[in-house]
Amino acid sequence: MLGESVRRRLPARRARAPRSGQGRSRPSRRFWLIALGAALLRPFATGYLVTVFVIFPPQPVAPAGIPVPALYGQTVVEAERKLAQAGLGRLQVIELPNPVTPEGDIVAQSPLPGQQLRSGADVRVAVSSGPVQVQVPDVLASPRSAPVTGWSEWDSRSRAWTA
């Protein structure tokens, strides 16, 4: 065989005796991978700690506030009474048309129920003004062939037809 002849020509491999003062072998590949990972992790960890504790320190905890009561479906008088009992400020009222909710009932509030406010802070509410009232022309009283008169142009300010 060819392999045998080559093997005979090569000198026999012998285990090297450690030189004087060198009792260690070469570090393994695993050692270098772990050392590289640690070398890359150290600057990241340092930067993270500096960012979290020095640049953006934790905010001080604010004292607990007063929870806002639920005001939906109540009248303005009832809502003002509830806010006074809770130690909050006045109501800021806006009227909005709502086809479902009766006129005078609260349909929205800000801040929402359960959120906390400082003592004396105001609460904004939207009160229903009832369904939208639209004026419809009387088309049944006029003859079918006659055009509807009285509505000449669209007023973009009031969003209604004007005469």
Explain briefly what this protein structure is.
With 163 residues, the protein is α+β, with helices and mostly antiparallel strands.
Note the topology.
Layout: H1 2-9, H2 29-55, E1 66-67, H3 76-86, E2 91-96, E3 106-110, E4 116-117, E5 123-128, E6 153-155, E7 160-162
Parallel strand pairs: 2-5
Antiparallel strand pairs: 1-4, 3-5, 6-7
Task: Considering the chains and any ligands shown, give keywords for the structure.
163 residues, alpha+beta, Trypsin Inhibitor V, Chain A, 3-stranded mixed beta sheet, two-stranded antiparallel ribbon, 3 helices, 17% strand
What do you see in this structure?
It is elongated and about 125 Å long. The strands form 3 sheets. Strands 2-5-3 form a 3-stranded mixed sheet, with helices on one face. By secondary structure, it is α+β, with helices and mostly antiparallel strands. A hairpin with a 4-residue loop joins strand 6 (153-155) and strand 7 (160-162). The model has no long low-confidence stretch (mean pLDDT 83). It has helices spanning 2-9, 29-55, 76-86; strands spanning 66-67, 91-96, 106-110, 116-117, 123-128, 153-155, 160-162. It contains 3 helices and 7 strands, in the order ααβαββββββ. Among the domains are: 28-57; 66-128, Trypsin Inhibitor V, Chain A (2-Layer Sandwich), CATH 3.30.10.
